[in-house]
Design brief:
Layout lengths: L7 H4 E4 L3 H6 L4 E6 L5 H12 L3 E9 L3 E4 L2 E4 L3 E8 L6 H4 L3
Antiparallel strand pairs: 1-2, 2-6, 3-6, 4-5
């Protein structure tokens, strides 16, 4: 996929809900798995348009594949990209607040 053809729904794959990310939501930080081809500007536009919020900043990191083994079969997990989105003061994503 080319970057120009990515829609907002293609950029944000799913929210990451762990104990750590749930605690970060109190600090207005939301964590998403995003498309590997996306960048900070695309993630910011996608979050702002899909959830009707204002984004203060976006931090992105590539998560490296981990070696896994099941019996005699060896492999690796897939590589993926994680985005930590910090919202401006007074904004929350209500759709994600109920998840636990």
């Amino acid at each position: 996929m080319n970057q120009q053809k990515l829609t907002h729904y293609d950029i944000l794959i799913k929210p990451i809900t762990t104990e750590k990310t749930m605690l970060d939501r109190e600090k207005r930080k939301y964590v998403f798995e995003v498309n590997v081809l996306s960048n900070k500007a695309l993630v910011k536009n996608a979050v702002e348009s899909l959830f009707n919020v204002k984004v203060e900043k976006v931090n992105i990191s590539l998560v490296k594949p981990k070696p896994k083994r099941r019996g005699r079969f060896e492999g690796k997990t897939r590589r993926w990209k994680k985005a930590v989105v910090t919202l401006k003061e007074g904004y929350t994503i209500k759709e994600l607040e109920g998840q636990q």
